[in-house]
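Below is a filled-in request sheet from our internal design queue. Each sheet records the structural input a requester submitted and the sequence that came back. We keep these sheets so that new team members can see what a complete request looks like end to end.

REQUESTER: design group, bay 2
PRIORITY: normal
MODE: inverse folding
CHAIN LENGTH: 336
BACKBONE (tokenized):
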């Protein structure tokens, strides 16, 4: 079994060579947007490091005990660390506890592994504590860090890691990967389109039965907002953000913004004369209407404003303020 990844062939190749030539690095920092495959790549690397029967050097078999337990997240030599919630804070006590565990010899594997997810959420004292571990490496320990961007991580940490930056894939690559996993081709095309080049997101969409009805609601909300007065737009924000700032609310907001961004991008391509994307998004009628009724400059501005809001919200900005600013920037579409 080769590495079970959609896309990112260069990264898989690089890591397999590292392992096959016994040049495993002490720490890897895998960067890229949410859902692009950072955690999946880290887990594949973890499996390849501890697999008991690798079919080829640098591969993993997928069925030995370490391979199965790593996939299930229950391997005793794999320690996972992350902030308490998306947009939360990774704290120094968590890093200290990890350090105590890493000081011990592996329980059963060749390597003791630490998976530090969303390390951009580490606060400065947690990052500084980890730096100590990187400066005084223990043998048989590999650290696997993930983060949105290398810029969001302490430079002294980045310089001690092998940096792997994952980019978003094309919808065609994502769709191909989904079809290879047995997803119906129409569903695969749709999910690939919505996912903005991120296979993790596409897999979730293609396996979530409610994703399509949620998406239909998000599309019709956008239409209502574009045709609505400012008062209606602000009432929508009020409803969206009522009850404060839970991680769940933030994730839902990200889904809304990502869906809107995909629609605006598709409308932009359409207004520049491109033919409809494969699979055809569920909001096709709205995309057509936007491309017909708004000028290319208005559409490009809306793409930029939505993109900016998405970045702000994923960086933990105040939800309500971020959405209100977007409402002010959205163009108006005439009813009918
Ligand atoms: Zn194995």
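RETURNED SEQUENCE:
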């Amino acid at each position: 079994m080769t590495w079970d990844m959609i896309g990112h062939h260069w990264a898989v190749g690089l890591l397999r060579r590292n392992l096959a030539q016994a040049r495993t690095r002490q720490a890897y920092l895998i960067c890229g947007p949410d859902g692009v495959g950072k955690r999946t790549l880290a887990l594949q690397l973890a499996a390849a490091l501890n697999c008991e029967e690798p079919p080829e050097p640098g591969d993993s078999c997928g069925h030995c005990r370490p391979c199965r337990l790593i996939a299930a997240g229950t391997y005793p030599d794999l320690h996972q660390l992350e902030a308490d919630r998306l947009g939360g804070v990774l704290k120094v006590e968590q890093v200290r506890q990890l350090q105590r565990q890493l000081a011990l010899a592996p329980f059963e594997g060749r390597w003791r592994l630490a998976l530090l997810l969303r390390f951009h959420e580490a606060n400065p004292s947690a990052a500084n504590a980890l730096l100590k571990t990187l400066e005084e490496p223990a043998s048989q320990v590999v650290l696997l860090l993930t983060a949105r961007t290398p810029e969001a991580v302490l430079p002294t940490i980045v310089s001690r890691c092998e940096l792997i930056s994952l980019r978003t894939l094309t919808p065609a690559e994502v769709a191909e990967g989904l079809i290879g996993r047995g997803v119906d081709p129409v569903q695969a095309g749709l999910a690939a389109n919505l996912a903005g080049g991120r296979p993790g997101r596409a897999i979730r969409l293609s396996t979530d039965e409610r994703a399509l009805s949620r998406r239909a609601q998000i599309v019709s909300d956008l239409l209502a907002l574009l045709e609505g007065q400012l008062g209606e737009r602000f009432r929508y924000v009020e409803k969206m953000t009522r009850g404060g700032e839970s991680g769940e609310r933030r994730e839902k907001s990200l889904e809304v913004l990502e869906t809107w961004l995909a629609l605006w991008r598709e409308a932009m391509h359409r207004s520049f004369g491109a033919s409809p994307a494969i699979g055809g998004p569920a909001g096709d009628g709205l995309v057509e209407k936007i491309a017909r009724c708004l000028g290319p400059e208005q559409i490009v501005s809306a793409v930029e404003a939505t993109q900016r809001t998405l970045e702000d919200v994923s960086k933990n900005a105040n939800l309500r303020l971020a959405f209100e600013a977007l409402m002010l920037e959205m163009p108006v579409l005439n009813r009918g």
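SHEET NOTES:
- The longest helix spans residues 247-271.
- The radius of gyration is 22 Å.
FILED BY: M.R.
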